[in-house]
Structure formats: C-alpha cells, structure tokens
C-alpha cells in the first residue's frame, strides 16, 4: 500500500523568506502523480502544484516549486518570498494508478510578519 | 474552472437520525467522486470511491451500511450517514474527477461540517 509521510507537523517562516516543506512517500507503482494541496482556514482544498512521476523536471508554479527525487521517493515543496496569505495547512498527496489520492498528515505553516 | 459544491455546508442532527450530504459537479461531468472524512487538525481519510451507475467501493474499516453512497448521475453523488452518533461528527469533503479523464486532477468541494448531538 502507498503511504505519504510529512515529518513536520508545524513550521514557521518570516514573511518574504523561503521555506521548504518535506514529504516522502512509499510505492511500488511506476506511474503516479504527486501533489501539494493547501487548506486555509476555510477548509477548501486548493491545488498548489503537481508533479508527474515520469517527468524528471521539477514542477514550478510562480513562487512554488518542488524538489522531486524519484529514487529517494522524496517530494518537497519550496515556497519563495513567503506571504501572509500562504499561512495554511499543506498536504502532500499521492495519486495512484487507480485514481485514489492518499494524503500525508499535513504541515501547518505559519508566516511571521 | 471546475467547481464542486456541497450541500449543506453545516448540519446539526440528533443522535439516531440520518443526514444526507450532496456533492455536485457544477460545470463538468464526473464519472468518479470520492468521499473523505477529516477530523479536527487531521488529514483527509478516503472513505469511499463512487462511480456513476455502480456501487461505491469502500475503504477498509468504513461501514458501508452506515455511510450510504449513491452516485445517480454524472453530476451528483450523495453521502447519507445513517443512525448518526456523536462520533460521526466530522468534516466531510467530496471530490470529483471529470469524465474521460486522463486528467490527474480531482476537484474538491468546500466540505460539510456534521455535528451530531
């Protein structure tokens, strides 16, 4: 069975600084997707960034980028120029070939003004 | 963009009663919908996968007779919590995957907070 591990329950970063959230996963599948979702206080899940496992190039979306290390089964999220609106719960997620999404336990990110 | 709605957003019901939660894809057809449960400050736990026109597939440990799922059309799935108890109080979130999806993405609803008194 696939598992997703986020080892940082909480993190804080100064506004305008850079922060990296860690995620590791375990799978025997060769074709899958990885995601980072943001859940603000409204509880609405918002897709931040996705990575196809077959792509070697790391995905980037504006201030958000990932470091995808397939062999190590690692998928970290880097947020550059942190903003107050980035404060939220961040979930790393794995989408299996069946379409199921498995979420990590989340990392609560605090932005310090 | 793809929008998924849930109704109601909040519901309070008495112990022993049943409550129905609707999940609708507003601007696309969803062959597959997923139901998640989220406890306070916890992650999302997949409860079941719902395919239009067929029986839902439940995750291990989820009581299918307690959490009835119906996916009667390509835009609507319902979750009915039967004989609710206080321990069923939680935040329930649905997501939908579009028809013909080579699409990787699921679109999430805003969630429903259920409180059982």
Task: Give the SSE map.
The complex is a heterodimer of chains A (113) and B (117).
Chain A: E1 3-5, E2 10-14, E3 19-21, E4 24-26, E5 33-39, E6 46-52, E7 60-61, E8 64-69, E9 74-79, E10 88-95, E11 101-103, E12 107-112
Chain B: E1 4-7, E2 10-13, E3 19-25, E4 30-38, E5 44-51, E6 57-58, E7 67-73, E8 76-81, E9 90-98, E10 107-108, E11 112-116
Parallel strand pairs in B: 2-11
Antiparallel strand pairs in B: 1-3, 3-8, 4-5, 4-9, 5-6, 7-8, 9-10, 9-11
Q: How would you describe this structure to a colleague?
A:
The complex is a heterodimer of chains A (113) and B (117). With 113 residues, chain A is an all-beta fold. Chain A is built from no helices and twelve strands. Chain A has strands at 3-5, 10-14, 19-21, 24-26, 33-39, 46-52, 60-61, 64-69, 74-79, 88-95, 101-103, 107-112. In chain A, the strands form three sheets. In chain A, strands 2, 5, 6, 10, 11 and 12 form a six-stranded mixed β-sheet that branches. In chain A, strands 3-9-8-7 form a four-stranded antiparallel β-sheet, with no helix packed on it. In chain A, a hairpin with a 5-residue loop joins strand 10 (88-95) and strand 11 (101-103). The relative contact order of chain A is 0.34. With 117 residues, chain B is mostly beta strands. Helices cover 0% and strands 54% of the residues of chain B. Chain B contains no helices and eleven strands. In chain B, the strands form two sheets. In chain B, strands 2, 4, 5, 6, 9, 10 and 11 form a seven-stranded mixed β-sheet that branches. In chain B, strand 9 and strand 10 form a beta hairpin. The radius of gyration of chain B is 13 Å and the shape is globular. Chain B starts with a strand and ends with a strand. The A-B interface holds A 33, 42-45, 47, 50, 52, 91, 95, 99-106 and B 32, 34, 38, 42-46, 49, 91, 93, 95, 97, 104-106, 108, 110-111.
Question: Helix proportion of residues of chain A, in percent?
Answer: under 10%
Low-confidence stretches of chain A are none
Assembly state of the chains shown = heterodimer
Judged by helices, strands and strand pairing, the structural class of chain B is: mainly beta
What gap, in angstroms, lies between the N and C termini of chain B?
37 Å
* Gap between N and C termini of chain A: 41 Å
Would you report the number of β strands of chain A? 12
Q: How large is the radius of gyration of chain A?
A: 13 Å
Largest sheet features of chain A: 6 strands, mixed
Q: Give average pLDDT of chain A, whole number.
A: 95
Low-confidence stretches of chain B: none
| Largest two-chain interface | A-B, 18 and 19 residues
Secondary-structure-based class of chain A equals mainly beta
Radius of gyration of chain B: 13 Å
Task: Report the principal-axis shape of chain A.
Answer: globular
The proportion of residues in beta strands of chain B is over 45%
- SSE run of chain B: EEEEEEEEEEE
